[in-house]
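Hi! If you just cloned this repository, the fastest way to understand the data is to look at a raw example. We've pasted two of them here, unedited. The first protein comes first, obviously.
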Amino acid sequence: MSPRLCWIALATATLLLPADRWVASWAPSPSPQLADAAQMRTAKLVFENQTLRQTVHVSLGGEQVRVRLSNAFGKEKVRIGAARIGRNGPGQVLTFSGRPEVTIPADAIILSDPVRLSIPSGADLTISLYLPGPALGAGIHYAAQQTNQVGAGDQSAAAAVTGANPLSAWVYLAGVDVLAPATAFNVVTFGDSITDGARSTVDTNRRWPDVLASRLRSKKIGVVNAGIGGNRLLHDASPSNIRFGTNALARFERDVLAQPGVRYVILLEGINDLGHAGTSAPASETVTAEDLIAAMKQLIERAHQRGVKLIGATILPFEGTVFAGYYSAEKEAKRQAVNTWIRTGNAFDGVIDFDKVTRDPSNPTRLLAAYDGGDHLHPSDAGYRAMGEAIDLRLFR
């Protein structure tokens, strides 16, 4: 072959190589702001001349990274005076369209410019945001199971935040994406507090999605946790429990389908639809098993329209829960009906039987004692590990 033909062949092959793409490696799901500024101040979610340093645990590694900042549910613009990302300490400056600061419009998302930063899969990153303020917290994930920091002044470039106060939420963060090969993708785990990791040990990343992420590292598959404590399929949170977020049908686009690189979703929702009605929510919000099944069918159809596969997970047992009125024999019958449909309805692209994994064989309407987080509703660290290890990785191809 002549040199010219060799050059043409090489150029053609190069053009046919798949390009890298952005894939979400970590993301939280936001809930609305509290009702008024006084509540926001009580929750330490009003910022003025302060620095937020927040820790996130990425699933998929890479050599380039970008950060998505969020003003989700915010009604006013928010100015970010400085931002940085690093593995140890403040790290590198983040810019936005070439600028070192950015103003995020109400309810908007802003992308940082890419940063060259070598990130192993499963690494912890720190994201520092300086807020000249005053600013109401937005893009809030209230139950981070992670201790973040708030310090006075612009400490975004400081090695350590001095005089820091703890913050148990993630604020203004929509996600961390890595530049990955075109074949890379992620799995979004979509659910409530059991997906969010309630009662897992804080600052240790022992949620069941974290366990799944560690098992998928060798396959270069990321995992994004889209759980919100108290979340329901069919009803928004009441004003007194706004942290529980909007209903799953409403947040599916923002929290799941909009995640860069999503190919699979694991759905574990429904227990709060059963338990909250008549307790933390009005009895008028009581649902039937058929209602929950219809909602799941809607999510399946919407996922399939976007080329995303939806895997159904059975609802965990909850008899004996410490939350008064949350459990009843009638609610248990509905749970059993929904789980039977998940297992046998052939509607999902796969099934994970978390009920079977976590139940007590001698009393299957209750969690196994070794997997009980203490309230007979949420698993312990051991229970979350059992859930994460029980997932058949062949579901993700």
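Ok, and the second one:
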Amino acid sequence: MSNHLAIATVTAALGQLVFRSASDAVSGTDLRYGRPQPPTAGSSARRVHVYLYQVLPHAGLRNADLPTRSGSDGRLVARPQAALELRYLVSFYGDDSELEPDRMLGAVARDLHARPLLTAQQIADAIASMGTPLQDSDLADSIERVKFTPVGLSLDELSKLWSVLVQTPHALSLVCHASVVLIDALERAAPVLPVLRRGEQDRGVDTRLGTLPQLGDAWVGWPDSAARQPRPPSLRAPQLGARLIVQTSPLAADSVVLRLTHPQRPLIEWTVPWPVTDPQARPNELALDLPDDAAAQTDWAAGLYSVVLAATRDGRTSESPVWPLLLAPRIMAITPNPVARVAGVATLGVTCRPQVQPLQAVSLRIDELEVPAEPRVAATDTLSFVIDPAPALTAQLVWLRVDGALSQPVALDPVSGQFVFDDAQRVTIT
């Protein structure tokens, strides 16, 4: 919320920002508000003018608070709020022979670009600089932060703008746009009715709006590394057997189910232990151990999963928006290794988890080469790659790519707890 002093506060804050930047570039600069006025003839006084020349309704928020009155009796149901955009002309005066206007403009443009958002501290400084006229301003409490954006004007638009300033010669200027400024009306809506009765089992009212479960950032690693404090850096993507710790919104639920959809595999419905009792999970986190048994090798597939969290409470289920999960393949063995070239050609066999489906795109990255897998007619965990021509390599790391998901040639050092390269995922070509 903000009152009628919001516009004046933005003007004062912009003036303070412009004044500090211009003074850093040229000492002795004076700040003026209002339409630009050149110094007296023969004077080269250093001066910067901040002029609010246009106020426009904000196109995106102008109707955000409609309707504000009841259609039946005209009673106020929401406090009206004006959403405005402000356009400023910042003009610079000084000794042209010393390029003082150019230097001031450069400093102002630099700082507006580096710090475009109006902070609470800048607002407080602006109010303090003006004293009594702005002492009741509450712009700092607004839910929207004001942002300054430079505006590019064509020569025709610039000439029209200056033609409005009758008998004011053109000066080197910068046009900037301040958005969005919210001003609340004085009227207040009636308070909401009190709660007369609680819901069953003292749970209150179960509403749908704003209570959908959410899945957020995730940490990926091995079960042994998740217990370390602090946690080691996260892997880019999980593989079968990995531990996945996912942040969630607060879940008021009796049970939680994850539904994982892959274009090449049947739907997986994974019932998550709830409430969470895993000691490695913090509040609002799910700790999940991806399976790595024989069934997982056929039920799962590398690539992109669409994950939906379904939280059920009192028989009613709410589903989260779709959350992406990239499952990485895992190289288990490379044979033969080392491999000898025959007529400049090397053939490698790679065993991986989980099985690769017939229609999945598969390739092997070695050094600067990316080699497609040989065709296959069924799901398999054994792939063949023909490298032609094959370079001579020594202990070179390899990556397996399945539908865009890359394997991760790393292991966890049990002593240091840090990631190290996995020597089992290196290949030598002689």
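That's it. A detail worth noticing about the second one: Residues 6-184 form one domain.
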